[in-house]
Amino acid sequence: MLLNQLNAAASPLTPEQVQKLQGLVAELNPIQQAWVSGYLAASANSAALAGGMATTASNVAEAATLTILYGSQTGNAKGVATQLQAQAQARGMAVNLVSMADYKPTALKKEQFISIVVSTYGEGEPPEDAEALYEFLSTKKAPKLAGVKIAVLGLGDSSYEFFCQTAKDFEERLVKLGAEVIHQRADLDVDYEDHSEVWINGALDAFEPDLKAQQTNANVVSMPMTAGAASQYSKQNPFAAELVTVQKITGRDSTKDVRHIEISLEGSDIQYQPGDSLGVYFLNDETKVDKVLATLELDGDTQVALGDDTLSVRDALIERLELTQSYPGFVEKFAALTENAELLALVEDKAAMREYIEARQTYDVIFQNPAKVSAQELVDSLRKVQPRLYSIASSQAEVEDEVHLTLAVVEFDGFGEQHLGGCSGYLGRFAEEGATIKVFTEHNDNFRLPADDNTPVIMIGPGTGIAPFRSFLQEREARDAEGNNWLFFGNPHFTQDFLYQTEIQGYLKSGLLTQVDVAWSRDQAQKVYVQDRIREQGEQVFAWLEQGAHVYICGDATRMAKDVHQALVDVIKAYGGKDDDSAEQYLKELRSANRYQKDVY
Fold first, then answer.
1. What whole-number distance in Å separates Cα of residue 93 and Cα of residue 148?
2. Strands 485-491 and 515-520
3. N or C: which end of the chain has fewer CB within 10 A?
């Protein structure tokens, strides 16, 4: 309510600042909001009293500040960067924590101490919010960084070929510009939490002497971080929610099994915005866990140590360890444990290893290579289960204490076994309505509706990519937004795969949806995809862009997002009279203005 008034009133804030303020407030509980209010008031009063002195102090402090730049696709890198910030401030260091999306690359020439925390996704690609800075560092405009001290941390997934490639590239490019690495880069896998703590301590030990010496010489006093309560529920402390509804929304003859999931957040005070994601912890299939125990001739009641906890090996396998997503690290450890010649050969051949794990889940590696190992050895060779993130398909303005998901059950056959995705199989097939599900929200400030409700939006979301756009439409309806809304949606068949058909038709009838273009790829001899519809509507698409429309893409990163991007380039060339480079630059400028945003996976 307050922020709606803020939008309506004559405000000194820009629309982008209002949007960021909305994002911050949504993450805070009432106590935290009160603290921030008091802090801002005190800060304003101090600035007024200090007058011109405040600018001088700020400039002096700038030279002795640790700048932490993060690029985060799913929120993990942001979380580690925030930990780095908190621990640096606890040591009395001046810190500037900035998303790469909000960082002006030209400011690099003013830096002396930089820490990079960045994830990698897809084929070794930078996250969306890191793209501009990543590209800038390879241009002639990038400044010389002689004397600048850096430390880089990469987050990734070793089951992918280009593990932590973005972090490697950032470090290499900064070093080429003259920067000095003062703490060794760490490339961390999905179970990064313990290792990131070690890296943070080492990096701060490296930065602290020089940074504090400059602060002392400049007579800079670093304000300690006030102990404000962290978010009550998080990846480390998920909320025990109730699974309310699991409903199949694809037809009986569909090749896809897509489920609409409703989860109650009642009693949590969890707040989320359209564009955010929900993290979900899941349980492994008990039948397959029992088969693992039988294959390895283990007693499920055998006690094992997992971190600081002691529990039965069966409970550890069901609740705490990764058994679906395969990765090289497990094969390497299991090969060493079992002295299996075939697996040991894979360890020496990365290409063969990649091919081997691509067709298998961790279960398969065990089932196909029975051996005698102890319960503790097995547990030590597996990594902790990681929550899966899903784009939220609802607006709290509509569903209040609920959160909705649009989930495709991952399913395939192989080696005589039915394979289901870990979390999608659990939510879509095994968990019963009424079950307790551990969840948390992950905020995504790089996928947000325009702050101005009059702004038109173009939403491109084939398949389950429709999820965040359902939340967008619910939100815009609740806010009585006047801006036009255009949806591009695609799937194989109209009769079997039109997700949320009734809702979409209702929004068309009410006028909330100005236009819908659908692409049914298998309903005719020639396949038709959303990118084809974009080209067909190219003149109108370009007209919307020229009128200030924001463009959003959600779904598959490997092919769809790239194909849609190329379609937009083609449209801009055809109707904007531009060549390839100019059309790409047009989209880069949209991205810089937060008018071209992606939620891809």
1. 17
2. parallel
3. N
| pLDDT > 70 in the chain, percent | 87
pTM (2 d.p.): 0.83
- For the cut 80, the answer to whether the pLDDT of residue 20 exceeds it is no
Mean pLDDT (whole number) for 582-592: 95
Q: From 463, 593, 549, select the one nearest 132 (Cα to Cα).
A: 593
DSSP-assigned beta bridge partners for residue 117: 70, 153
CA distances from 552 to 73, 160, 286, 387, 447 (A): 15, 26, 39, 25, 8
CB-side neighbour CA atoms (13 Å) of 75? 20
Q: What is the mean pLDDT of the chain?
A: 89
Closest to 488 measured CA to CA, from 525, 451, 538: 538
Give the least confident one: 6-20, 387-401, 449-463: 6-20
Instruction: Write the CA distances from 569 to 549, 584, 585, integer angstroms.
Output: 16, 6, 10
Tokens of 30: 């009432």
Closest CA relative to residue 380, chosen from 448, 316, 445, 446? 316
Helix count and strand count (H, E) for the chain: 24, 20
Of 13-22, 486-495, 554-563, the least confident: 13-22
Q: Which run of H or of E encompasses 55?
A: helix 52-62
Rounded Cα distance between 283 and 423, Å, is: 8
24 has a pLDDT exceeding 80: no
Q: Are 316 and 306 in contact (CB under 8 A)?
A: yes
Helices (H), 235-386: 286-295, 313-319, 328-338, 341-347, 350-358, 362-367, 375-381
**d(Cα 139, Cα 92) in Å, to the nearest integer?**
35
Q: How many whole angstroms separate alpha carbon 394 and alpha carbon 283?
A: 24
Burial class, 45, CB count within 10 angstroms (exposed 0-12 / middle 13-18 / buried 19+): exposed
Write phi, then psi, for 470 (nearest 5 degrees).
-65, -40
Q: What is the predicted pLDDT for the residue at 517?
A: 98
Which residues are CB-neighbours of 104 under 8 A, at least 6 positions away? none
d(CA 209, CA 195): 23
Question: Which among 245, 321, 242, 234 is positioned nearest to 283, based on CA atoms?
Answer: 321
Give tens-digit pLDDT for 322-340: 999 999 999 999 999 999 9
Residue-wise pLDDT tens digits, 184-205: 999 999 989 889 999 999 999 9
